[in-house]
Amino acid sequence: MNVQIVLVHGIRTSATMWRPQLAFLAERGVQATAVDLPGHGTRMDEDFTLHEALHTIDAAVRAAADAGPVLLVGHSMGGLLSLAYTGGAETPPVAGLIAASCTALPRGAALRAYRMLARAVDSLPDRGQWLTERILAATIPLENRGDFAAGGYALDTQDIALGSLSGLDLATAVARIRVPLWFVNGQYDQLRVNESLFRRLAPHAELIVVPRTTHLVTAMRPTVFNAVLQLAIATLESGDSPAPSP
Question: HEC states along 86-152?
């Protein structure tokens, strides 16, 4: 059976952020599904809750698992949720996980500071749109620069979603994960803050740090990220992966 891919986007953006990866996978005949989390993209009018976000991932994974082993891929908030889901008390049908730009525990002073910054940007007259566009123009290749905004920005959901992430017990979840696991971070990603802790919690995981890249690793270096996808797919197809410690 062929590997199936489920892609989970980060905060504010939507399934459209995965367009370069979806095109890459389609060219190779790999079946992939990119979900919209509640309060984002096509579901912008819904309330964001952890329960519904995790349910969205679960529904997509279980549907994909009917056709083959599932490689779950999450970026930023989507990566945190995917870690929590894969390492949940009940083992889901996930064969492998790529967790990108999410080696940080969303709690305490760091989370409070992040929310304060997000609120400050949101308080600008244009809710930070000019600043966002300038950052994307400076970092994202022109051909996929519009993908982050194509599904709309979930500005009204952002603070609620950030606050809810503190309810995740990620340390416990990551330590439970027994499937092949890849942490992918940009060299200058601010969410590398707990990278060493995540590596201790999941010693079988592979860490891939992409040079000259920030938090938006999937969009800044799509060719590199697509190579990671290909590596993970080949690993699951061959069954050749590091055995986690019991």
Answer: HCCCCCCCCCEEEEECCCCCCCHHHHHHHHHHHHHHHCCCCCCHHHHHHHHHHHCCHHHHHHCCCCC
